[in-house]
Amino acid sequence: MNVSNLFNPNLDKIQISAIRRFDQEVSKIPGILKLTLGEPDFNPPQHVEDAAVAAVRAHESHYTGMSGLLELRQVASEFVAEKYSLNFDPESEILVTVGATEAISASLMSILVAGDKVLTPAPLYPGYEPLIQLAGAEMIEIDTTKNGFVLTPEMLESALVANPETKVVILNYPSNPTGVTYNRAEIKALADVIKKYPVVVISDEIYSELNYTGEKHVSIAEFARDQTIVLNGLSKSHAMTGYRIGFIFADASLTQLIIKTHQYFVTAATTVSQFAAIEALKNGKDDAAIMAKEYIVRRDYIISQMAPLGFDIAKPDGAFYIFAKIPADLNQNDFDFLLDFATEKQVAFIPGSSFGQYGKGYVRLSYAASMAVIKEAMVRLTAYVNDKRGQA
Asked: Strand pairing partners for 247?
């Protein structure tokens, strides 16, 4: 008996991530060099790994409370206070989640119902829209391609006026896929717009510690606290992707609602990982600085190699991605362009169309890869582009 027709019909709108699908496809190519996924090539700091081992040996294998270990929430509260001037009560305003991904899921599924609208600057990380669709809501993309991928207050206000059903605005900065981030004045200006409307901001700040502007990361929660849900985690800052530790920071009136969804999704984050996270935030507050220094070197090298080939790049000030426009004289179908490149030169990037309609004609490179891999990839990209131009 076929019972698939009994499933949520909104699942028909959802596909497996285009990033993962393309990565899996090119992974079949022998000898492929991949600058595809957003996973640091660094290992977690040794002191964090030691804390995880110690937790295992201490038999820390039982459930924690749904919100996570209080000690972890306390050090997370201290971390964002010191780093970003945010004040959240560890007992009532912080939830420990299974990575930032579950933080996104729990937040969106707690808020949205059918007919709601969600505004997002685009191109953007593709992990939001499927959840929005699953809830029966609609995502409205704000095209930032002609503005250096920067969302302005005017663009945001115009979108809010045009879409009065908007319930949520999603911000992700530093951004995946563009690496663009915002300074204090820019964030305050966006917050001033937000405060005029009855909307919730979900601010995905998972790359906050990978900011290359020379200034501190500024959270929009500093200016619109009551309307903001801040999402963060340790995957990018401490190279702890597999530990799956994320955080939700929000006013108590919001966290007491989100925890209802969170508890039925996961009960609680993994206990051993939480003990490792305590060590990361308590004694590794600046662990990301070591990685950030290397990422800047890699970023600048890639730009120095791609720009002369005709790729148009908005210099990223955070995260670890290059989002580059394919030169006009080359194949503008980003999927076909990169599949051909991977087949001919055994190098893989991610098609820009994976990040929505406004990513078409772009490619995304992750420079969370070794310099040796990056240099070889650039040699092969140069050869590929020259080959194609020679064939023209």
From this structure: 96, 232
Query: In the beta sheet, which residues pair with residue 166?
Result: 117
DSSP 3-state of 249? strand
What is the dihedral angle through the alpha carbons of 359, 213, 127, 84, rounded to the nearest 10 degrees? -150
Return left, alpha or beta for 94; rule: phi > 0 is left, psi -120 to 50 is alpha, else beta: beta
3-state helix, strand, coil in the chain (%, to 5): 50, 15, 40
Rounded Cα distance between 39 and 10, Å, is 30
Mark residue 114 as left, alpha or beta (left: phi above 0; alpha: psi -120 to 50; beta: remaining): beta
| CA pseudo-torsion sign 206, 209, 211, 215 | positive
Residues 247 and 112: beta-carbon distance below 8 Å = no
Residue 299 has which token pair?
Answer: 């970023």
Tally the residues of the chain: 392
Using DSSP, state whether 49 is helix, strand or coil.
Answer: helix
Pick the CATH number of 46-284 from 2.60.120.10, 3.40.640.10, 3.30.465.10, 3.30.450.20: 3.40.640.10
Task: For residue range 219-255, list pLDDT tens digits in order.
Answer: 999 999 999 999 999 999 999 999 999 999 999 999 9
Fold of 9-43+287-391: Aspartate Aminotransferase, domain 1 (3.90.1150)
Q: In sequence order, what are the residues at sequence separation of 6 or more whose Cβ sits closer than 8 angstroms to the Cβ of residue 42? A: 239, 291
Who contacts 303 (Cβ-Cβ below 8 Å, separation ≥6)? 313, 315, 322
Are the beta carbons of 217 and 192 closer than 8 angstroms? no
Q: For the segment 345-365, what is each residue's pLDDT rounded down to a tens digit?
A: 999 999 999 999 999 999 999
Helix (H, G, I), strand (E, B) or coil at 38: coil
In this structure, the number of other CB atoms found within 10 A of the CB of residue 200 comes to: 24
Cβ atoms of residues 352 and 311 within 8 Å: no
Domain segments of the chain as ranges: 9-43+287-391, 46-284
pTM flag (> 0.90)? yes
